[in-house]
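pipeline: protein-struct stage 2 | run 1193 | Phosphate regulon transcriptional regulatory protein PhoB
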Amino acid sequence: MMDMSKKILVVDDEEKIRKMICDYLEAVGFLTIPAKDGVDAVSIFVKEQPDLIIMDVMMPGIDGIDSTRRIRERSNVPIIMLTAKAEEGDKLLGLEMGADDYITKPFSLKELAARVRALLRRVSFSKVEEEEVKIDPIIKIKDLKIDTEKMTVYRKSEKLSLTSVQFTILKNLMLSPGRVFTRIQILNSFQEDVFEGYERTIDVHIKNIRKVIEREPSKPKFIETVWGVGYKFAEEEDSV
C-alpha cells in the first residue's frame, strides 16, 4: 500500500480554495503544505521538498507557469496544474513547462485526490512493477539507454532529465520499437482516468521528450510521428 504520509504542496492565491484542498487531502491521509503564491511555492519547495505539488495557474506576481518552470530547473517532482476551463492555452503551456497533469476548475476533490494518488503511485511503485513483470531494467536502442529501475536516461554518456510522466511514456515506447501507439494508448500508460480532449496533451509530452532526447527535435530520429494515428519509437536500424 502506498505511504499516505506523502507531503503535498498546495499553491493557490485563493485562501478558500487552498484550505478546501488541504482539508480534503488531509482527511484522506496526506500531509499538506499551503502556499499563497508563486514566490511562496518556490521558497517552500526548496525548504520542504514535497512529494507532489498542486499548482494554480492564475496567481499574482509569479504565476503557476513561471513557478513550475523554476521548480523544474531544480527537480522532477510531480506537478498537477489547476486551470480554469477557458484557459486551454495555459494547460498546454503548463505541460510545456513540465507539469505532469492538469485539472480544470471547478473540480471534484475526489477526482483531484485520485490524480494525486495516481501520480504518486507511478513514482513510488515503478521499481516494484518492473520486477513483477520481469522487465530487463536496461533498454538500449543505439545512442539512447534507459534504466527502468533507476529511472535514468542516457544519450551516449550524457545523462538526461525527464519527469516521471515523460519517462513512463519513453519507456513504454522503447519497450516496443516499431509499434505504433495511439494517443489514447499512450495516455492509458500513465493516466487512469481518460477525459474527453485529454489525449491532446500527449502531443505536448512528446514534444518535451523530443527536446531532451533528440539532437534535432524538429527532425526527430527516435520518436516518430505516425500521422493520423499516434507515435512510435524508431526500430534499431532507423534510429541514430
